[in-house]
Amino acid sequence: MLRLLKKWLRAGVSEDGERSPTSVGTPQGAVISPLYANVFLHYVFDLWINQWRKREAQGEVTVIRYADDFVIGFREESDARRCSRSTARRRGRNSKPS
């Protein structure tokens, strides 16, 4: 499947019968985008959040993800705050939860 995804990235975009090469990512709204999001987020989010939950969480943590959207539920507010900080650092931001 990954081989086919690599081919799709090199396929380019067809607009008004004209093919244009793409240099980065997939076009907005492309039918393949949700599949790419799932592959990417499996490695950069799913695996990470499962490890974070095992190492850091004091209470129960529920993670629901669909394509590029996710919701994380926490029993303990302190876990939510720590996860928010860890997620911000992972994204390269120093935002603080309110």
Overview features:
98 residues; alpha+beta; two-stranded antiparallel sheet; two-stranded antiparallel ribbon
Question: How does this structure look, described?
Answer:
The chain is of the alpha+beta class and 98 residues long. Helices cover 48% and strands 18% of the residues. It contains 3 helices and 4 strands; from the N terminus they run H-E-E-H-E-E-H. It has helices at residues 2-10, 33-56, 77-90; strands at residues 13-15, 18-20, 61-66, 69-74. The strands form 2 sheets. A two-stranded antiparallel ribbon has the order 1-2. A two-stranded antiparallel ribbon has the order 3-4. The longest helix is centred in the middle third of the chain and has 24 residues, at 33-56. It is elongated, with a radius of gyration of 18 Å. It starts with a helix and ends in an 8-residue tail after the last helix. The relative contact order is 0.10. The mean pLDDT is 84.
Topology:
Elements lengths: L1 H9 L2 E3 L2 E3 L12 H24 L4 E6 L2 E6 L2 H14 L8
Antiparallel strand pairs: 1-2, 3-4
What spatial form do the alpha-carbon principal axes imply?
elongated
- The end-to-end distance, rounded to whole angstroms, is 42 Å
What is the helix content?
40-55%
Averaging pLDDT over every residue, what do you get? Answer: 84
Oligomer: single chain
Class per helix and strand makeup: alpha+beta
- Radius of gyration, rounded? 18 Å
Strand order of the largest sheet: 1-2
SS summary, helix count: 3
- Biggest sheet character: 2 strands, antiparallel
Give the SSE string: HEEHEEH
How many distinct beta strands?
A: 4
Uncertain segments are none
Strand content: 15-25%
